[in-house]
Amino acid sequence: MTTITHTPIYLDNAATTAMTPSVIEAMTELMTTDFGNPSSIHSFGRQANQRLRTYRQTLAQALDAPSHEVIFTSGATESNNHAIKGYALANQEKGKHLITTEIEHHSVLHTMAYLEDRFGFEVTYLKPQNGQITADMLKEALRDDTILVSVMYSNNETGDLLPIAEMAEALRDHQAVFHVDAVQAFGKLALRPHELGIDFLSASAHKFHGPKGVGILFAKAHHMDSLLHGGEQEEKRRASTENMVGIAGMAQATADAMLHLEENYRKVEQLKDTFLAELDGVDYYINGSDTRMPHVLNIGFPNQSNSVLLTLLDLKGFAVSTGSACTAGTVEPSHVLTSYYGSHSKRLAESIRISISDLNTLEEVTLLAQALKEIIGR
Fold first, then answer.
1. How high is the mean pLDDT in each 10-residue block of the chain (378 residues)?
2. pTM across the whole model
3. Cα–Cα dist 349/304, whole Å
4. CA-based, 20 to 30 A from 326: which of 30, 50, 223, 269?
């Protein structure tokens, strides 16, 4: 049996990231000094509310947006649901046509399917052509009754960057609002939704070294239905007592990310380039488009089963993935790669996803390349 000869190496950062010491410290400090409910009117509540305003301002500054446009949520799945369902259901008298892509996260795709099945909306799913989803494809799909377009900023399985600015320009004179799932981009790229022409933007803390279970929805002042009913938190847009500990961690992770944005991006680029250089002599291909973030590498090895590769790499102490869901121990074909290459492509069974963060090292990516050479060379 293959045994681990080094500290286990984590390279599945598109799934989740490790919290940094500064984030853990910020959360611990809050837990030990301030347990008040920010909706309470006594001194404990007022102190918590002041913290909440400070945290909200940190997120707003990162987006170069007013603080009242930041809604705290339980994560990007809720943010995506809130933006899509909330706007579509509140504005269906304007039309019942929605547009998204086939390569979105399931929290978008399943939300769209729900609106189709339960409320009679019609959804157009843009399919990659020659490895690209373009603004022209969006223009062709637009109709007079289109009310919302939802497109991810960067794909979670391939790292592909979609033409967000060009798509926003295509919507400039149209009634449709623009929702962007920025889960894989926030904390890694400078995102300014007002400058880009975005109406709604979703992000999740655990993708950039914050805690799980907390995220944001940037939302302009559009008429929307609420998903949660009860209290008047988040300016009556999202009932439920705010997750103060999680928000504290997310605010710290955001502040850290913004401080080192360009430095961290360059480091991840170097790690990706080093990994590929170390694979010299190995037969491989890279999935997706030519325009992608360096943080996610969807790579295939001809005639190598990805399920076997994952198992052998795990035994050697490397955490990577296929980028798709595992059900009852079986690796399901990626809906993203299926959209790109078809359901019969060998790539679906040969490809793995390696996702890098700024916490990874040159030694780690070099060891991964060496391990792949050993496995594939057998």
1. 77 97 98 93 93 97 98 97 98 98 97 98 96 96 98 97 97 98 98 98 98 98 94 91 96 98 98 97 94 96 95 96 60 89 95 98 98 89
2. 0.95
3. 8
4. 269
Which two structure tokens, joined as six digits, stand for 140? 């062709």
Task: Please answer whether residues 184 and 154 qualify as being in contact, where contact means their C-beta atoms are separated by less than 8 angstroms.
Answer: yes
Q: Which of 1, 12, 18 shows the shortest CA–CA distance to 210?
A: 18
Tokens standing for residue 363 = 């030694």
Q: Write the secondary structure of the chain as one string of H (helix), E (strand) and C (coil).
A: CCCCCCCCEECECCCCCCCCHHHHHHHHHHHHHCCCCCCCCCHHHHHHHHHHHHHHHHHHHHHCCCHHHEEEECCHHHHHHHHHHHHHHHCHHHCCEEEEECCCCHHHHHHHHHHHHHHCCEEEEECCECCECCHHHHHHHCCCCEEEEEEECECCCCCEECCHHHHHHHCCCCCCEEEEECCCCECCECCCHHHHCCCEEEEEHHHCCCCCCCEEEEECCCCCCCCCCCCCHHHHCCCCCCCHHHHHHHHHHHHHHHHCHHHHHHHHHHHHHHHHHHCCCCCCEECCCCCECCCEEEEECCCCCHHHHHHHHHHCCEECECCCCEECCEECCCHHHHHHHCCCCCHHHHEEEEECCCCCCHHHHHHHHHHHHHHHCC
Beta bridge partners of residue 330, listed in sequence order: 327
Amino acid at 137: M
Known catalytic residues?
326
